[in-house]
Amino acid sequence: MNRRLHYFVSMGLVLLACGVAPGGENRVLLVGIDGAGGRYTQAADTPNLDSLAAAGAARFDFLNEAALLADPPEPYGSSGVNWSTVNTGASAASHGVHDNFFDDNSLANFPHWFKYVKEHDPTLFTASIVNWAPINELLVPDEYADLKVQFSGQPAAIEDMLVRDEVVKLLDTGDPAAVFVHFDQVDQTGHAFAWGSPEYYAAIETVDGLIGDMMAALNARPGVVSGFEDWLVLVVADHGGEDGAFFHGASQGPSDWEVPFILSGPSVPDGATFGPGTLRDVAPTALWHLGIDPSTTNMEGHVVGVSVVPEPTPYPWIFLALMVLQARRDPAKRWFGKRKPRHRVC
What we know:
The protein has 346 residues and is α/β, with parallel strands linked by helices. Helix content is 40%, strand content 14%.
C-alpha cells in the first residue's frame, strides 16, 4: 500500500472510531405525552422510557409556562399554551397562545419549528401525527408539514393506538426527517379517574408500550441499522396535575408545572446530564440536532443535552484529504506522527 493511500485509509478508520459516518443524516422524533406529570412518569413502570433515558439523559422536573410567572393565569397549566411553547421554543407572552382556544395569537412571528426545518432544506420530510386536533389545525401550518394526521371522535386510548400505527407506518415505509407525535390518553384518564389514580398510572404505562412499538420500528430502519441515520428522540409532556384532582391548572403548583424531558440517541454523550430547563428548550434542541442554529430564529429557549454542531462539514473525507496533503507538503504542520505529542482526535 502506498503512503498516500495508507493515510486515507487511516483517516477513514479514525472517523469510524469516532462514530462519524461520512454523509450521515441527523433526524428527530419528538414525542409528546399529554398530561404526564413528571413525578408520576418517574414513578410509573415504563421500561421503554427507561431504556431511552439509559441511552441518553432525562429529567422529570422540566418546567411549563405556569412555573415561569409569579402569578400565572390558570390556563398556563394547560395544553394549548404548553404545546405551543414546545413547538415554537417561545414563551406564552411571545407566541400569544394563552389558553386552549388559540385566539389572537402571534404564531406567525413565533412559528412552529417545522418552518425552520423547511427553510433549512425544503426536501426534508416533516410529519405531525397527533391525538389532539388543535395542534395540527391551529399550530402547524400546512406549508410546513408534509404529513398531518389527527384523530377525534373515538376513545383516547383507541386514538393513541391509531397514532402509534401511523408513526410505525411512516418509519417503516417513509423517509421522515422531523416528526412530532402526540398521545392524549394520559390526560383524558386524569380527567376521568384523577391524577395519581391507578388508572392514570396504567395510562402512562400503556403509552410507554406504544412508544416501545415506535422505537422498534425506528431501530429496524436500514439507515439506523447501518449507522447512517442518527435519530435524536425527545419525550416531553405539557403539564401534570394535582394528586387526586380531576382537572389541572397553574394554581396547582409543581404537580402541574413539572414534566418529564428525555433525550436519547447516538448524539447524546454517554453519561450526559443537563440542568433544570423549560419547555422553551425543546424545539431549539431539535433544531440543533438537525444542523440549524436556533439563535438565528425567534426561539427563546436553549439547546440542552446534545453535542452536535450545526452545519457540520458536509464532506469530511475531502476535509481530511486536504489535511493529509497539506501535511505532506509541509511537515511542520503535520498533526500526526511519532514526533508530535499524541492527542485523542475525537
